[in-house]
Amino acid sequence: MRNTPRAAAAALVRRIEAATPPGRDRATDALRAFAILGVVLGHWLVTALITDSGTLHGASPLQRMPQLTPISWLFQTLAVFFLVAGEVAARSHAAARARGTAWSAWLRARLGRLFRPVAAVLVVWTIATVAMLAAGVGVDTVHTLDQLVLSPLWFLLVLAALTAATPLTARLHPAWPCAVVALVDLLRFGLGAPGRIGWLALPAGWLVPYCLGAARARGAAHRPTTGWALLLGGATATAALVLCAGYPASMVGVPGAAVSNLNPPTLAAVTFGLAQCGAALLLRGPLGRALRRPAAWAAVALLNLSAMTVYLWHQTAMMAVTTTAWFLAGPLPGLHTLPDSPSWLLARLAWLPAFAAVLLLCRAAFAAHEHRGPRTRDRHGPAPDGTAPDVPEGHPARPAAMPRA
Questions:
Q1: What is the band of 224 on the pLDDT scale with cuts at 50, 70, 90?
Q2: For position 182, what pLDDT does the model report?
Q3: Dihedral angle sign, alpha carbons of residues 150, 151, 156, 161
Q4: Which of 348, 399, 345, 354 is nearest to 377 (CA)?
Q5: How far is CA 336 from CA 95, 144, 321, 351, in A?
Q6: Residue 306, class by beta-carbon neighbours within 10 Å (0-12 exposed, 13-18 middle, 19+ buried)?
Q7: What is the pTM of this model?
Q8: How far is it, in rounded angstroms, from Cα 174 to Cα 90?
Q9: End-to-end distance of the chain based on CA atoms, in angstroms?
Q10: Which stretch of 53-57, 155-159, 292-296, 319-323 has the lowest confidence by average pLDDT?
Q11: What 3-state class would DSSP assign to 218?
Q12: Among 317, 201, 325, which Cα is nearest to 270's?
């Protein structure tokens, strides 16, 4: 009996490997998984909930321990996600167009996959908010918790807008949106324009890696020299902007800071993202070779199966552990105490397995919402929108009629 879990895991690995089409781009799936995990771990490490007179407030260790700034360099991985999204969307739209599928039908299918799991989050947290207020939980505490849940949704709105614009942006050179961000920064930082003009950089900033991914889809940006140019050029430009132009070193927002590189994205965030994209392009080959191992590929495939669920519920998992521990045991190090010392970071690292365990429960409860939808394909062809699935065909957790990648 002791070997039963191991045998079951081995059988699952074999099943996933057998179900994966030979032409599956495993490196792309790995990069998507890396980007999602980076966001999750980054939020868990730099987001703290502290108690103040019985009220929960958000705090960040980056505010009191600037020496932790390199954490933001490791875990702010959104540029890699938009790189992958641009490549996948451009290929998907080209396939749909070749099949004669209208843009509107293609877009409905893409956005349906994106927003179905969002509905589950909004319903659960609407009920939770009403219940907390009815139970007498303070408005400030409820606002803090709701903000942590809802704030990641900005990313989905930007992704939806870029997806809708894929036919227009598929051939757009990344230099054009990069120039828009540079102009916006010049206006607001150099010429005293109103700060709200910075929001023009929100779509433009993430359009840069999205266009780079679209360029890969049409056969460009495949040479190693491109990856090295992006990595070295982006890193050099970012260092110059931080050291010489006064941009923040942190690649995520820090409470109390005059400028955030992320909200909205600055030129430094864009150049840093280009460096990340360069590294991602250089890693594609090694990743593809590593993922020939069935066990490694199975782990990546399983994460991609519920990537949106993991993204949408990871803050809920962290807050569930934090609030439950507060009510049961009072303030605890790494959960409710001020993040102002290395001991807090060590304590927070010790809590990560608890966050992950609750996230697995959320995944078990809500992952089905990520794949529900009309079955609108014939028996042998790809999906009507021309898209490829995010996990292998025949995956044990997917419908048997999943279209081939």
A1: confident
A2: 97
A3: positive
A4: 399
A5: 50, 14, 11, 12
A6: buried
A7: 0.87
A8: 14
A9: 37
A10: 53-57
A11: coil
A12: 201
- Pairwise CA distance, residues 60 & 318, whole Å: 14
Q: Nearest-CA neighbor of 43 among 11, 9, 77?
A: 77
225-263 pLDDT, tens digit per residue, is: 999 999 999 999 999 999 999 999 999 988 888 899 998
Cα–Cα distance, 355 to 324 (Å, whole number): 12
* Six token digits for residue 317: 């998992």
CA 21 – CA 288 distance, rounded (Å): 14
- What is the average pLDDT across 31-42? 94
Q: Which residues contact 294 (CB under 8 A, 6 or more apart)?
A: 13, 14, 16, 17
Contact 265, 154 (CB under 8 A): no
Instruction: Say which range, 127-141, 294-308, 390-404, has the weakest mean pLDDT.
Output: 390-404
- Integer Cα distance of 157 and 177 in angstroms: 18
Q: Element (H or E) spanning 55, and its range?
A: strand 55-59
Question: Residue 55 pairs with which residues in a beta bridge?
Answer: 52
Cα torsion 37, 41, 42, 46 to 10°: value is: 170
Residues 255, 256, 260, 264, Cα dihedral to 10°: 80
Concatenated DSSP letters of 234-281: HHHHHHHHHHHS---S-SS--TT-S--SBTTB-HHHHHHHHHHHHHHH
Average pLDDT, the chain: 86
pLDDT for 167-183, tens place per residue? 998 889 999 999 999 99
Tokens of 403: 């279209």
Token digits of residue 248: 């923040």
Please give the helix or strand (H or E) that residue 340 lies within, else none. none
Torsion of CA 75, 76, 78, 81, to 10 degrees: -20
Burial of 151 (0-12, 13-18, 19+ CB in 10 A): middle
